[in-house]
Specification:
Blueprint lengths: L1 E10 L2 E7 L3 E6 L6 H13 L19 E9 L2 E9 L6 E4 L2 E2 L12 E4 L4 H5 L2 H15 L3 H20 L2 H6 L3 H39 L6 E6 L17 H22 L10 E6 L2 E2 L6 H22 L7 E5 L7 H13 L2 E6 L12 E6 L2 E4 L2
Parallel strand pairs: 3-13, 3-14, 8-12, 12-13
Antiparallel strand pairs: 1-2, 1-4, 4-5, 5-6, 6-7, 9-10, 10-11, 14-15
Length: about 375
């Protein structure tokens, strides 16, 4: 898979940009603040329907504009897909696939599959559990795009149930909590499906991430990935061949919800479900968070992204290998980590790289080069 053409209108700093891209390494070179990251952010938005830098769409629209448009032509195997997203903060975003409008924006997921490694990935290692859940959820959606709908359904259930909990005082006094029982069922059903897919994705990721970590930090203890939940279920170890089923997880969720109900009613918040889970990262016997050095943190973040890339390649999904996007990271890495990242990028069908200066990019990734400066992007090699 590779992106043949990218077009952005009123996206971030770009009023308009049209780029003809090729397979192999594609390098954007320019000083900080010239808009390199904005271009790859637009690409990653097409793949994930979200930004790796901000939580809302408003900052993605150029100042003074009402909307932003991102278009791409993607070569996926023996066919070309054309995707267009119209980003309109405060309104419903619109999307087109091969020129035809789609009912829901998430219907374009899977047209472009990409793995992005960026300095912001240190938040996966050092940030709160929400960052790690987001990483894992993006991976499972990349593997199975329909899971975007399950995530949306689960978020809707959480909102509805939270509103009910906050207003349940009168119903509690009257002993009428039947509506809450209904929403418990919805939460258990959608939450179990989401958890089952997360656990399966993590189980598949483990060997790839461990191998990537061993390559970038060969003298370090083994890298560990563990799904953490408070539910009364047995989670699989690294060598497990049997995973918990959605039915088992649904039963465990219903049990936990029943036990937590008094506390939830007192506090008015959802205390049970996969929105409370975490992805625990460890090196040897120690957790990464709080113990890892800066270099070890980079190694873990790199291993997670390289492992994700290798997993998506191994999945053999239609359209070929995912696009690998590397946002200004070579300058942050030492020689050993740079070399390992360059080896992976060199075998990608398309690797899109940003750098402040040409010397930041390893020689084997020279490829097609664009200079980004003064509000323009120009091909120079």
């Amino acid at each position: 898979m590779h992106v043949r053409h990218l077009s952005v209108v009123d996206f971030r700093s770009w009023q308009n940009a049209e780029l003809a891209l090729e397979a192999g390494p594609v390098v954007f070179v320019g000083a900080n603040g010239e808009g390199k990251t904005n271009l790859i952010e637009a690409l990653n938005y097409l793949a994930t329907l979200g930004s790796h830098r901000v939580a809302t769409d408003a900052p993605l629209v150029r100042s003074g504009a009402e909307r932003a448009v991102v278009r791409a032509a993607i070569i996926a195997g023996d066919r070309e897909l054309r995707v267009e997203l119209e980003i309109s903060p405060g309104r419903t975003n619109r999307a087109r696939l091969n020129g035809a409008p789609v009912n829901r924006q998430r219907e374009v997921l899977g047209a472009l599959r990409a793995v992005l490694f960026a300095p912001e990935d240190l938040a996966i290692v050092r940030g709160d559990p929400a960052e790690r859940r987001r990483f894992l959820d993006e991976l499972l959606v990349a593997r199975t795009p329909r899971m975007a709908g399950v995530r949306a359904d689960y978020d809707r259930v959480l909102k509805q149930r939270a509103a009910l909990l906050k207003s349940a005082g009168a119903a509690r006094r009257a002993g009428d909590l039947g509506t809450l029982d209904v929403w418990d069922g919805h939460l258990a059903e959608t939450g179990a499906e989401l958890m089952a897919e997360r656990i399966a994705a993590l189980q598949a990721l483990r060997p790839h991430a461990a191998a990537a970590y061993a390559a970038v930090a060969p003298s370090s203890p083994e890298f560990r990935l563990t799904y953490a939940t408070t539910l009364p279920v047995t989670l699989p170890g690294a060598d497990a061949t049997t995973l918990p089923t959605p039915a088992e997880l649904q039963e465990a969720l219903l049990e936990a919800l029943a036990q937590a109900r008094p506390n939830e009613l007192d506090r008015g918040v959802n205390l049970v479900g996969p929105h409370r889970d975490d992805l625990e990262l460890g090196i040897g016997e120690l957790p990464v968070r709080g113990y890892a050095s800066h270099g070890e943190g980079w190694s873990v973040a790199l291993a997670l992204r390289l492992g994700s890339y290798e997993l998506l390649r191994a999945d053999g999904l239609p359209g070929g290998d995912p696009v690998l996007i590397l946002d200004d990271v070579f300058a942050e890495l030492d020689g050993e980590r740079r070399e390992q990242l360059a080896l992976t990028a060199g075998k990608a069908e398309q690797a899109i790289i940003t750098a402040a200066v040409p010397d930041d990019v390893p020689a084997q990734l020279a490829g097609t080069r664009f200079d980004v400066a003064d509000g323009t992007v120009r091909r120079v090699g």
